[in-house]
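Ticket #282: bound-state structure for glutamic acid.
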Amino acid sequence: MPSLTTRFAPSPTGRLHKGHAYSALAAHTLARDRGGRFLLRIEDIDPTRCTRENAEQIFEDLSWLGIDWETPVRFQSEHLDDYSAAAEALREQGLLFPCFCTRAEILREIERAGHAPHGSEGPLYPGTCRRLSEDERTQKLSTGTPHALRLDLGKALALTGPGLVWTDTNQGIQDARPELLGDAVLVRKDIGTSYHLAVVVDDGLQGITDIVRGVDLFEATHLHRILQSLLGLPVPVYHHHALLTDAEGQRLAKRDRAITLRSLRESGVSARELKRELGFEG
Ligand code: GLU
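RESOLUTION: The complex was predicted; output attached.
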């Protein structure tokens, strides 16, 4: 049996807050208690939202928390070829289709259809471009219309068959239900990959056995599970934890200007105090 390997995989789109500290400490503690490895991965595939400065700040915040990690740190932006290779493997199996829709077109189509099954990421894709004829597709491709690549979930499920499961240590064995995310975008129009594809590829390549992350990614795991099958990757165990909330019960999020670790530190809070507050012994 390989030893336990876990990771913390933040996107450097802003400063870390207490919720991130909780996730990082939970993963780090799991590795420490089980004699395993702890990796840090910087998920910076989106150059419009991620900065090197934020990544540097993440290193500083984690060091302040007393977290140590193996080097070199994997920056996803330096491994785009790995994600392209995975997309190509799926394409060769006929599991991807080009999607030329804009967001506005998708919303209009959903409105027209009069119903919109929702997943964790909003209304599900109504399948417009999956139904294009080969001629229409070729024509659009030949004129260079920008397109994303989506998973053809029907074909993917036909290939894997039923019976895919994954385990969450808090909620037990789960039947994989990738239909919660529908024909998800695996290769975005603007960057040659997507969160879902990159995270699954990296967890596989880095030999991650245990994934600790917030329960906001629980539904995404159903999609990740089928991608693992399609790409021949091992299936980690998941530890989805509850999200921290503020005094009003609102979920902490970077965009809501939750108090950052940096400002806590600058206001004199010690790492020891914060860890105790979050339920970790200093
Ligand atoms: N990069 C993701 C985020 O910052 C987390 C990915 C994961 O843990 O799977 O929300």
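RESOLUTION NOTES: The mean pLDDT is 94.
TICKET STATUS: resolved
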